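Review form for a predicted model. The reviewer records the input and the model, then writes brief findings.
Reviewer: anonymous (R2)
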Amino acid sequence: MALDDLYREVIMDHYRSPRNYGSLDNPTHTISLTNPFCGDEIILELQVSDGVVSAAKFTGRGCSISQASASLMTEAIIGKPVDDAVAMMRGFRRMMRGQLENEEEMGDLVALAGVGKFPVRVKCAVFPWEALRQALTPEQLPDDD
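Model under review:
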């Protein structure tokens, strides 16, 4: 199986069977966003305890890329200190710009690296990460982080 096929299968698996889809009982952070470019919607709920993302769930609707990205993102950040989750978000944004520094660090998220070849779809992949950014770092981050 070619690497592109494997990555495509990972994306479709997360789209068809999203991980962490649903709502948390007592989230400490909640953000609701709509992507004005395509109408994708996400409600991201986080439980942060002692500086660690102890739980993350999302609901919403959208294309396969945005939904798979949200599923992969929640898997990647659960159990991580907030600073590490924010660093991962920054790394993901760089990966979408073709600046993948450490493939191993990105784990399964690397399945979305190929989206960077399609500029119109990058916004779909980054959309859940923008929700994470707004939930965890309400201050504006520069676009080139």
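Findings: The mean pLDDT is 89.
Further findings: The CA atoms of residues 7 and 112 lie 7 Å apart.
Recommendation: see findings above.
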